[in-house]
């Protein structure tokens, strides 16, 4: 019935003329699913047989996740039994086995990561450039490869938790050596009396089989609540007998004393089991209490960050309102200046506060710089005294509180073997931090992996939050039951820990959106201030509507489809979902996604007949983009390919704008990929981003289709036996590699517009007494037309020629210079180069940097002071959105590559362990 309701909802958003046919199709499809879906047919042995033969090589973690969810939804236990039997062939019972499992996973992931690079050069270059590059880009470079990949680690994390419980019991038994040894001797004699000689077992498996008989003789050993103790006692007994076999004198208890002896031993063992188990349970609860406290601190910090983020959001609302108001004030300079001043202050506030969010999320409580800057008064012109004190208080609280993240990031640096170093070095300070650190360090064999896959220290908290996820199908182990009791204890005292920890992921998502929106706002602010509102970043309504709606007949179906899915919150969680939501619009959209990447010109601007006659675009291409590109080719004529490739790695600081070129020159041990065509025609970045979003969302349809031309997904059993999986996988990879090339080229073009790799050469041309008139004149034209590049060049000049160490002095002079001739003169006296002067445009009430070359006047806009002082490049918002798109593509490619790289030993093992034992 729920499925039918969903289908009805879908039909509400389909044109009426199509609804009858679609309804018929859905009725047939729903009826078919009722018969063929795995939930109804799991009893079929043929499906299990096909799953045994299923080769994960051509699949992906997302498709496997969907298949597993279909299997797990069935009440039938056949699949659970199948997985359990297969897992017995490769158990994860000890640290060595868990480490082997993780090592194989890590190796496969590293190979998959490297496979997606065009060659080894890109791999080396990206790793090196991340050290210096734009912050938001380097953060995305560590992004989660796939939202489902971490499910491969579930069994390792679970086994790690169980090892922790086992170790706690081992420690307790070791503290009672003499008592335990005597119990083992007594138990050996009791069993020997009944004809069971434990000393005859030559290996652990045989010993365990003999020891099982003890459960029938000693009632205490059969009690489930002491399962972990009994398991550890069995291990201890084997080791004891193996070591002392020659010294053990077996004794038979007299028949008339046997029952009394067994009863006394049972009472003694029961009391001992109870005491040890209660001790471990108490310690687990203590760890739970500490996790509660640390997580409470974490939540308080989150609430603080939520407050900061809300202030950013409120500022953004006001910023947009100011931009709307300023648009009609060009003739009222006084009021316009007032609005612009407020606008600049809000931009600066948001930039500072976003840095706080980014510093916490990605740099582990790195708040010292922000505290120092506020304390020294560097931002007194941005924040009112009350605002400043509030921020300082918040930052100090963030800095000093021990939280789950701060503990996790410390544990990640150490193995369990040197856990003491955490305490001795002072990384773990408080009692709660030490307890939780010990808990995490014992399972630190998975912690490094967990961090890598989550992209920041929060990934490590899967060790804690994972406890709540092992609910048990089949019945959880005794260790996991104890850990679940700990989880229940925490839940009684606090809201679900795992749910609260998931807020970290939402923080990262929100930060990404906030940061990207912030950069876009800063870029738009720059454009407005310097009469470039419709340039540099082109209007979405021109670029997107005209460039995409008319490009390909079926492309609009992707919008119709995804909009309808969003309205009814469609999630493709099971394999059956892909069949359920495959309708005509899905097919038409897939057809478009399949065709478009093969034709680059669909994604470009100048050659597109719907765009080329637009005035703004014509000006942008002829007067800004083409001259900038021509200047670039003149400077890098002998190494244009290497230089173009370097543009794909934009930087944050104007002083570093040429670093990609120098780094690649040093790293270049292999031939640079051919990038000469990357700058030919300007890309429509908005369409690229949208197209990749559609492709990401629907790409699994390409993986699970058969030889059909309509992209209809195969039935589950047919997919399991399908031999085209690898072919489909390769085709999808090629499609995303093509999109990756297009995206990289678009990033290069946006970097070019911002002036990356051009600041040094322009400086050398215009201030190095160059006699190349053609190049010099072109550089002057570019500076006068391309206001974005000109602003970055003025930032470059000012930071190279003015001592900025006294921030307040320079800032005060720049502010007062707009209305005070003496302040302007004092400001110009700071310049270390003879013919550069600050000038004020009275009409705009703006500060510019001015000089003459070749009898031509050059007027460079001066950036806002905070950007200027930080020496920041102003990049287009497209740079950031395209970089996020590139990381999404990389994640998808890693997901597609990963299963192909599992070695032969582990390929099927991963298949049966995926999603753990749930």
**Which percent band covers the strand fraction?**
under 5%
Can you list the strand order of the major beta sheet? 1-2-3
Shape: elongated
Strand elements, count = 3
Mean pLDDT: 77
Beginning-to-end CA distance, first to last residue: 27 Å
Number of distinct helices: 44
Explain the overall architecture.
The structure is a single chain. With 918 residues, this protein is mostly helical. It has a domain at 791-872. The chain is 66% helix and 2% strand. The chain is built from 44 helices and three strands. The chain has a three-stranded antiparallel beta sheet with strand order 1-2-3. Helix 1 (2-12) runs antiparallel to helix 2 (16-36) and helix 34 (685-704) runs parallel beside helix 43 (877-897). Mean pLDDT is 77; it is low at 1-43, 135-144, 445-460, 522-529 and 531-550.
Question: What's the short version?
Answer:
The chain has 918 residues and is mainly α.
Keyword list:
elongated, 918 residues, mainly alpha, disordered N terminus
Q: What's the SSE blueprint?
A:
Layout: H1 2-12, H2 16-36, H3 38-41, H4 45-53, H5 61-72, H6 78-88, H7 95-115, H8 120-129, H9 135-140, H10 154-175, H11 177-193, H12 204-212, H13 214-217, H14 227-244, H15 255-326, H16 333-363, H17 368-375, H18 385-400, H19 404-411, H20 420-424, H21 431-442, H22 447-454, H23 462-465, H24 478-493, H25 497-501, H26 503-529, H27 540-548, H28 555-567, H29 575-580, H30 584-595, H31 615-635, H32 640-646, H33 659-667, H34 685-704, H35 716-721, H36 725-754, H37 759-767, H38 773-785, H39 787-801, H40 807-816, H41 821-829, E1 837-841, E2 846-853, E3 856-861, H42 865-869, H43 877-897, H44 907-913
Antiparallel strand pairs: 1-2, 2-3
Helix pairs in contact: 1-2, 7-10, 7-43, 8-33, 10-14, 10-15, 10-24, 11-15, 15-16, 15-21, 15-24, 15-26, 16-26, 17-18, 19-21, 26-43, 28-30, 31-38, 32-33, 34-36, 34-43, 36-43, 38-39, 40-41
